[in-house]
Design brief:
The complex is a heterodimer of chains A (446) and B (250). Chain A is an alpha/beta fold and 446 residues long. Chain A has 10 helices and 21 strands. With 250 residues, chain B is an alpha/beta fold. Chain B has a single domain (2-239), classed as 3-Layer(aba) Sandwich (Rossmann fold). Chain B starts with a strand and ends with a helix. The chains are: A alpha/beta (446), B alpha/beta (250). Bound molecules: adenosine-5'-triphosphate (ATP) and magnesium ion.
Chain lengths: 446, 250
């Protein structure tokens, strides 16, 4: 058994030498107290009871270094030449050498939070660390306390982005076990529209821990599509806490695709701060071997007339585990709330496991809330039908698996990105190795 | 083409087929009739390779090969085709992709190159016309949301695509209106050559007005209890199975 208190101190102490963090000294003092009294999640922690973090505690980490990556690595993720603005982070540090931003020049700020703090302090101060992210759990707390950089996207009012913005996150252990903490801040102004693709990759297959924190402010009538692609190596642990505040009439769409990783925990909080907001959240997860992928969604309907949709689908192979928790909270005066949730899982073996937990807490009476969760195996009848037409078992299975996740993938609205994810999902389902999946340098044990 | 000898099969310990003998030669059409639950679909499924049934005795030769040595997909590529009594819906798998994959596999098996995308679409269009399939297939998933009749037509369409040597039509006429019945029968007749053969499972002699069988068998209680010419079907239509059942039970 690992002594979690010792482990906790070990991780915290790693960061105490440095001082160059994003939060202010006052905030740091506050957080220090919080971190001291917050335990690492274990099997007794209600929200983590099906997810053990032991795999990531087994290692002694160092802090990841700042570095530049060859452009050809980044080009692996160019989505068939899709024209995007692109900001690149390596081990959580901004890499301007790898980044290009051309759209809406002079009107917007896209780059690094660290730079924003330096050059646009007023904006930084207004929005940074204003959600409850910092006190969500131990990981979000240390992310808040010890993050040095991350992606910063500030879109003022009435700006429409023609091209998506791609945030490329590389983790580079360089044969070391590293811990990386990036902290992203995204502000979408009134009536503004933007599509953001945030992708995570490993450069080599090391034991790494990426602890990501993201805050998103979506203002009145804004429209944000936020895509997350998690393709880090199979030894990589990934903790991702994302907090969104939505204001009146804003529309959000997220799609989280988790294709690899040893232990992945995605938490997504949506807080409707005002009426007529919409959040359409999708996810796809494909754990294999002994991987563990956990998606935790929490939607807070505090105001009336808001709509939330969740569609999460997973295919679980070998001894892998998947967890889905979908919380929907509807406050007493959040009338006319429309919330739907659907989680579907396909288990490929008898040892694969899934824990699916819809949690609806509804205190308003005039609402429409629906949820459904299914877990099953490949349809034997359909499989036989395909085989009876000459299609070999393996190919037939892939066709059925692809079909199973198709509706989630089809909701990705940027076609080249959708095609790319589709391509990798297909490779993944066929068990084929491919550059860009699991690690840039193809890992032998993918 | 097909030679079945002493075939017995069970499911969950219950014997369904109790010794079937049947021989079909190239160019022939055999009809199999028989009351509900007598084992017609079971026989068809076993020939197609459905694993849920347990074959306990007998052998089946298909084009001089031991059928039981072949997987369902190999049987298909060797030229066996089953038009299912209840075609399954497969959401998310488009008919185009499905047929493309099937045809590719058949061609690879024959040592042919896969078709080009345009070549394939043209081929598909021709076959659709041949079986007068007017359902728009583009972008639709296999059988999903198809009407009963459309599902049956889709089976014949697939048969046209794969050009089998032996086709087994399991109640392809059930649920078809008269016009659709003619269309389906026409399709089957157009695909008929002196080198291929068919087994037509049906409850209605009406179908046999269009697809004229060389031989008619009656399957009852897991056995073929009577074999005759076309007239046997007419007789059954008139008198039902009572007479045959009585004969058999004595
Ligand atoms: N999967 C199964 N599990 C258990 N019993 C089965 C299964 N499939 C078929 N049977 C049984 O086998 C017997 C024969 O069924 P089969 O479907 O072959 O009949 P059939 O002659 O095709 O009837 P119908 O004319 O109604 O289509 C029936 O008693 C049926 O209940
Ligand atoms: Mg039947």
């Amino acid at each position: 058994m690992i002594d979690t208190d010792i482990k906790k101190n070990e991780i915290v102490n790693l960061f105490s030498k440095n001082t160059d963090y994003l939060i202010s000294d006052n905030e740091a003092i506050e957080l220090k107290k919080f971190i001291e009294k917050t335990k690492l999640p274990d099997s007794k922690t209600e929200e983590w009871k099906n997810t053990s973090i032991e795999t990531l505690l087994r290692h002694k980490y160092k802090i990841g270094n700042k570095s530049v990556v060859p452009d050809e690595y980044i080009n692996t993720f160019s989505f068939y030449g899709l024209d995007t603005d692109r900001i690149v982070f390596v081990n959580g540090f901004f890499s301007p050498e790898n980044s290009t931003v051309n759209q809406n020049k002079g009107k917007i700020i896209i780059g690094s939070v660290k730079e924003a703090k330096k050059n646009n302090f007023k904006i930084f101060e207004e929005y940074f660390n204003k959600t409850n992210l910092y006190k969500n759990n131990f990981f979000s707390a240390i992310n808040t306390s010890f993050s040095q950089d991350g992606a910063f996207i500030f879109v003022p009012d009435n700006i429409v982005f023609e091209k998506p913005v791609h945030i490329v996150n590389f983790i580079n252990g360089n044969e070391n076990k590293v811990i990386v903490q990036s902290r992203n801040l995204i502000i979408v102004g009134k009536n503004s529209q933007i599509k953001i693709i945030s992708t995570y990759h490993s450069i080599s297959s090391d034991f790494t821990l990426n602890n990501v924190g993201t805050e998103i402010i979506a203002k009145e009538d804004s429209n944000l599509e936020f895509y997350i692609f998690e393709g880090e190596g199979n030894e990589a642990s990934h903790i991702n806490n994302t907090f969104v505040h939505q204001y009146k009439g804003s529309r959000l769409k997220t799609n989280t695709a988790t294709l690899c990783g040893s232990l992945v925990r995605n938490e997504l909080y949506i807080d409707f701060k005002d009426e007529y907001c919409e959040a359409d959240l999708q996810g796809i997860y494909l754990p294999d071997k002994e991987q563990h992928i956990d998606n935790f969604v929490n939607i807070i309907h505090s105001k009336p007339h808001c709509t939330s949709k969740q569609l999460y689908k997973g295919i679980i192979d070998n001894k892998a585990k998947a967890v889905f928790t979908g919380k929907v909270f509807v406050a007493p005066d959040a009338q006319k709330t429309n919330a739907s949730q659907s989680n579907n899982n396909l288990l490929l073996t008898d040892n694969a496991k899934v824990y699916s937990r819809p949690q609806l807490e509804i205190y308003a009476d005039d609402v429409s809330c629906a949820h459904g969760s299914t877990t099953g195996q490949l349809d034997r009848e359909a499989l036989f039908y395909l085989k009876s037409r000459g299609i070999p078992e393996k190919r037939a299975k892939t066709m059925l698996m692809t079909a199973f996740v198709e509706d989630v993938l089809n909701k990705i609205e940027i076609k080249p990105y959708r095609d790319y994810v589709n391509y990798l999902v297909n490779k993944r389902l066929k068990g084929q190795k491919v550059e860009g999946l699991c690690s840039v340098k193809i890992c032998p044990n993918c | 083409m097909l030679k079945i000898q002493g075939l017995k099969a069970e499911i969950e310990g219950k014997e369904i087929l109790k010794g079937i003998n049947l021989e079909i030669k190239a160019g022939e059409v055999h009809a199999i009739m028989g009351p509900n639950g007598s084992g017609k679909s079971t026989l068809a499924s076993i020939l197609a390779g459905r694993e849920i049934f347990n074959v306990t005795a007998g052998k089946v030769e298909f084009k001089d090969k031991n059928l039981f040595d072949l997987s369902p997909e190999e049987r298909s590529r060797e030229g066996l085709f089953l038009a299912f009594q209840y075609p399954v819906e497969i959401p998310g798998v488009s008919i185009t992709n499905f047929m493309r994959a099937a045809l590719d596999e058949h061609r690879i098996h024959k040592g042919q190159k896969p078709m080009t995308a345009t070549g394939f679409l043209k081929f598909m269009k021709e076959k659709k016309e041949l079986v007068e399939m007017d359902t728009k297939l583009e972008g639709r998933a296999v059988n999903e949301g198809f009407s009963g009749g459309e599902k049956k037509k889709n089976e014949i369409f697939q048969m046209a695509m794969l050009e089998p040597d032996l086709s087994i039509l399991d109640e392809t006429d059930s649920g078809l209106d008269i016009d659709a019945l003619k269309v389906v029968a026409d399709g089957v007749n157009k695909l008929k050559t002196k080198n291929n053969a068919s087994i037509v499972i049906t409850h209605y002699q009406r179908l046999l007005d269009y697809i004229v069988p060389d031989v008619v068998h009656v399957l009852y209680d897991g056995k073929i209890v009577k074999t005759g010419g076309r007239e046997l079907a007419l007789e059954l239509e008139k008198y039902g199975y009572d007479k045959i059942k009585k004969e058999y039970e004595n």
